[in-house]
Amino acid sequence: MQTTETEPIASTTRARAWLGTGELTEKLSRNELFDVLSNERRRCALYYLQQQEGTVELTDVVDYVTAWQYGESLSELDSGQRMRVYSALHQAHLPKLDSAGFIDYDSENGTIETREEVEYARLYLEYDPENDISWSTLYFGLVAIGVTLALVSRFAVGPFDWLTSSHLVWLLLLLFGLTTLALGFHEWRNKLALAELFEINR
User: Fold this and answer.
1) For the whole prediction, is pTM greater than 0.90?
2) What are the extents of the domains in the chain?
3) Measuring CA to CA, which of 127, 152, 154, 173 is 20 to 30 A from 53?
4) C-beta of residue 65 within 8 angstroms of C-beta of residue 89
5) What confidence tens digit (pLDDT) does each residue in 71-114 have?
6) What are the angstrom distances between the C-alpha of 164 and each of 25, 34, 126, 169, 170?
């Protein structure tokens, strides 16, 4: 099922130099980002934290991740399961998310707050390569359709001799509108898939 290993804290001290500068994508390499998100417990904790507002108690994160990992409801968890997850989160996973700049973890008070930079991680958490289409392919298709319609309208080809400039404008607007709706639906499906992946019984 889910991995349960405790990982050492990676050396990401340079992250503190760029927090809040809006340069996360430039300073945190793709390999470092993938390393931060490579562990299932970290991804689950990060998902839970993104759903909360304000300060979150460590015990709440421990309960959520434990219930998800063991596939049990919160009421069925025992102290041993909680302690194993607590140790891993407290000693390794939350400090690593803190060093990466996604959260502020106060280990003494047992509280956590997410940072604005966590939105960058959300893009990767919600990315599903099996259902994705590259932006270049999408825009190439839209341009190809637009050019075809423009040529048909310009030279009054075949049964499309009724296609005026006004019709062309509305068709292109409709095309881009439908594409926007399709992209919105695609993003909604990815978010739903992520929610189902980390869903727990309460």
Assistant:
1) no
2) 13-125, 129-196
3) 127
4) yes
5) 888 888 889 999 999 999 999 999 999 988 899 999 999 999 99
6) 45, 51, 42, 9, 10
